[in-house]
Amino acid sequence: MANRLFRKKTVEQIISASTKTAGLAKVLGVRDLVSLGVAAIVGAGIFSTIGLASFNGGPAVSLLFVFVAVACVFTALSYAQFASTVPVSGSAYTYAYVAFGELFAWIIGWALILEYAVSNMVVAISWSQYFVSMLGGFGIQLPGWLTMAPAYASEAYVKLQEQGLESLSKADQVAAMAYEHAPRLGDIPIIFDLPAGLITFLVTWLVYIGIKESRTASNIMVAIKIGVILFVIFGGIFFVKPENWTPFAPNGVEGVLSGVAAVFFAFIGFDSISTTAEECRNPQRDLPRAMIICLLVCAVLYILITLVLTGMVNYTELNVKDPLAFVFEYVGVDYMAGIVSVTSVVAITSALLVFQLAQPRIWMTMSRDGLLWKRFATIHPKHKTPSFATIVTGFMVAVPALFFKMDFFVDLTSVGTFFAFILVCAGVLYMDYSGISKQSKFKVPYINGRYLITIGLLVAVWGIYRYGQEAIMEWRHLSIPEIIEHKLLIIIFWLVWIVLCIMGYIYRFSLLPVAGILVNLYLMSQLGASNWFIFLVWLAIGLVVYFGYGYRHSKLNKADAP
């Protein structure tokens, strides 16, 4: 059984299967892929969660963007090598099938389903907030109970009872009033986020009717999106007050790192374009180029806009859901805030579009391998899209977006993504070791890490001893059970680095994929325990599905059966 669980697919098997069964339209070039990548990356992260990250870390969050961007470059290079070697839909799921075998492929595929679904829930909720703000600018007020999550309204109502109306923020006042005035089913108030559900439905319909239509819509919305970002940067620079950048890191390193999930969420998306490999005209050439270009463009935009936002407004004011519009309202330029709100609605829609495009193709690829029901691999005869998988994706995103708070989803998105990124970087090391890299049209630049990985470890240990005495004192005051509860992931991080030092010396590992593994694993260790619990529950459900259906119906399993 162990041999079957870790049985690998060859590159030839995967390409042959996709050629026989896919039937997707090959219409995407480099410009289209860059557009889709920018559409995915520049989404709710920069239009919403960047405010929370700046509130926690101050202006120093701009350095966190640099750090996360570097981590993503290491990962993007690894994705690019895989995409040039295995130019089919499936992203990290397909790559894991080649490098680590069926069980790991299933785990990654299941994690990607969660990543794309949860990402779009955040994007849909963020879109709703900007949409409601935009309507308010035109004098149209939707009932509050139609525009928010039930938990948000009930929490605000509890605050109202405890603290009184005057002590609440404006947003909490609106939510508390929504709870009071909502229609009721018995004693239960009827509260849901209608705009979030509607936009998910409309984008799902667009993805369903065709890749050409989705491409055209994405290109238009990305042009508008980049325009908004440049508008904020060049318009806001005149209102920057350098004193707002002091102190640069008001809450220290801990405050900056508390924004890891939000900042990393802002970069999620460059990997999603690898799911469109079978719709590219020349995937082995175009996918690597597109990934690197869109990541570099977005990193520069993010760093600039973070500096502008924290320069215009003191970081303590930025814990809002629509920071780009808020900063112009704060400095009294309401017409610019209105322009940002209107165009942000269009811009965020493009991120929703790309993730709704990506997730059905994961379902489709897993179904094609026999790990999910055949229906998920159905290609619409007219529209040439995975029709059934697209409909399921629409329901999977729309229903939670109607009823859950955005804060619940942000960290959860990052857990599965980090996991996928680490395995893709590790997969490149396996490709180099096994010789599969010889088939790659694009390769991660090779830097011999035989000694550098160990030197990096020694430098890190010295840095902690020299500058991290506070952290060392914290560890000394923790009991063994507390260390296991709160610091287990950090311990795993250091153990993995030690193992990589040993293996890197023996196998002469390439430095860049190792750096990708370590940076992603470190960022992963900074996420909350509750998010890990939910992720593990999702993973357990996935394993039940795999052993209940996928293991028995796997095409590799059937091929080896006597």
UniProtKB/TrEMBL annotation:
Subcellular location: Membrane
Membrane-crossing residue ranges in chain numbering: 33-53, 60-82, 94-118, 130-153, 188-208, 220-240, 252-270, 290-315, 335-358, 408-431, 451-468, 488-509, 529-549
Gene Ontology CC, one term: membrane
Domain named Cationic amino acid transporter C-terminal: residues: 511-554
Keyword Secreted among UniProt keywords: no
InterPro entries with a match to the protein in the record: AA/rel_permease1, CAT_C
The entry's keywords: Membrane, Transmembrane, Transmembrane helix, Transport
Any one GO molecular-function label of the UniProt entry: amino acid transmembrane transporter activity
Membrane-related topology note: Multi-pass membrane protein
Protein name: Cationic amino acid transporter C-terminal domain-containing protein
Protein's organism: Parapedobacter pyrenivorans
